[in-house]
Design a protein that fits this description.
It contains 6 helices and 4 strands, in the order H-H-H-E-H-E-E-H-E-H. By secondary structure, the protein is of the alpha+beta class. A 4-stranded antiparallel β-sheet has the order 2-3-1-4. Strand 2 and strand 3 form a beta hairpin. Helix 1 runs antiparallel to helix 6 and helix 2 crosses helix 3.
């Protein structure tokens, strides 16, 4: 299969891996470790950011370390025509970490966190306490054996097979 026009190559993959492993590393140190010119690293980085491949360099924050060890997923059914209002409502709830519109049973999937199971009830009440939300079904996450990750996908996109 020929590469996609906006696919990444092995150097992009190595740069992304290096930045994922050491987010505070500078461009000069990246160029030294990757054994390419500083301008090459900067140009690659700029291109990856412009294409949205790299979206930011912020810290990874663990909600459990902030005092929110309970994670749950809620599938929401919403009233027709209420999507924008429900999105705005959910965006105002600090415990809502992610919101996805979905197909299948339900209209939205929300990842939420809480301080405890009892606090989860408060969060759910706040989430569903909006006229546009008809029904919610919630599942508590017990374990996260494969946390959010993208490096295996980066490796595959950069040419598959071996490590980048």
């Amino acid at each position: 299969m020929p590469p996609q026009p906006d696919a990444i190559d092995a150097l992009d993959g190595k740069l992304i891996r290096l930045l994922a492993e050491e987010p505070r590393i500078g461009v000069l140190e990246c160029s030294r470790r990757l054994q390419v010119a500083r301008g090459t690293v900067q140009a690659r980085l700029d291109r990856l950011q412009a294409r949205g491949v790299i979206g930011g360099f912020g810290p990874q924050v663990d909600p459990a370390a902030l005092g929110y060890p309970v994670t749950a997923f809620a599938t929401l059914e919403i009233s027709q025509g209420q999507g924008a209002d429900v999105r705005a409502h959910l965006a105002a709830v600090p415990e809502v970490l992610e919101l996805h519109t979905i197909t299948g049973h339900g209209d939205m999937l929300v990842r939420i966190v809480a301080r405890s199971n009892a606090d989860l009830q408060r969060v759910i009440d706040r989430v569903v306490g909006f006229d546009g939300i008809v029904r919610a079904s919630t599942a508590i996450a017990l374990e996260n054996p494969v946390p959010y990750r993208v490096l295996p996908l980066v490796e595959q996109a950069a040419g598959g097979g071996g490590a980048i």
